[in-house]
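Design review, sub-item: ligand-bound model
Attendees: FS, YL, KQ
YL presented the inputs for the magnesium ion complex:
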Amino acid sequence: MIGVSVLGATGSIGLSTLDVVARNPGRYRVVALSANTDVEGLARLCLSHRPELAAMADPACAEALARRLADQAPEIRVLGGEEGLVAAATHPGADQVMAAIVGAAGLVPALAAVRAGRRILLANKEALVVAGALFMQEVARHGAEVLPIDSEHNAIFQCMPGDFRRGLDRVGVTRILLTASGGPFRTRDPASLDAVTPEEACAHPNWDMGRKISVDSATMMNKGLELIEARWLFDARPDQIQVVVHPQSVIHSMVEYADGSVLAQLGNPDMRTPIAHAMAWPERHASGVAPLDLFQVARLDFEPPDPRRFPCLRLAFEAIESGGTAPAVLNAANEVAVARFLDHRLRFTDIPRLIEQTLHAVAPGDAASLEGLMAVDAEARRVAERIADGMV
Ligand code: NAD
Ligand code: MG
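KQ shared the predicted structure:
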């Protein structure tokens, strides 16, 4: 049995992961689960999956969980705080660690799993945006294995030659074609974007996701973060990555080769496919996703992204070109902006403005150490909050 630890178990990706586990009885054993503050949600998962360890980022919630499990599952060890998350990420029985915490909060536990040399199923793209160079260096140093869960990166991984780590130029890969649905506002009148509500922004046409990534998809910062994610996962230069808007979300991304071939991975937009792919790799097994009905799909459309409608994409390209700690600042400012927008304390169109101003205001720091990156992350959050206060 393959031991699995699921970080962010109560979220959209976490629940899909546990669904794939349940569809493959006898193959996986859940050894650790984690969540932030959802005591009842994690308690239910603990009772059905019986992990050895349950961790909650919030220490008071961990105590509440321990009380909640005391009668029905006293054998489950409950830990709180970052220590607890790291214990879940490095549980001795975890062959695979699903990194599905949202935001930079997932970096420390994901990096701990890397340093423990595990197979990391990486959904937490923000970890790579904040600390890409360090993260990939540690993967190599500790012999860890990173399999992308983000549907685009999982598709790219599936379309890449097995030896892509020798270098894209050397294996004849010319471009990565990163597809984007365009989100809910692809065709909406730009003049009306000022009035967008969190509910409208979270109503994605093709995917059912957590709220933060849903807003990222609406601003297309999600594609910006994914650009940086692809840069690190595949050691690609920014000019080797082309964003292609593909509204049906049936092709999940493509790889173009020197001989003119383009390989694509297709499937229904359901995260259980990339999750099952990464868990079973190099084998394949059931995911619960219905087979793709091409006659129903009927057509596939493509268009270039509109840089005026989606300034976040340009900001991400600029951050990647600046390098160093700029992507960490981009990410922190975006997290602040999205949280405030969801809380009705920032207009939708102020999200890119806040990120751009924060990028200009925060001085570069040390991108080579976790401490340096965390310091820049904290400073960028302070600066972004201050700028945002002036915007309301
Ligand atoms: P979600 O909001 O549904 O779930 C987030 C999970 O992380 C929850 O279990 C929550 O308890 C936990 N969490 C939140 N803040 C935390 C903190 N400070 N410390 C510890 N745990 C914390 O999010 P999601 O949509 O499942 O996304 C998770 C990650 O996967 C994100 O990085 C997202 O970009 C990425 N991703 C998601 C999808 C998707 O379809 N949902 C697709 C591609 C990539
Ligand atoms: Mg994606």
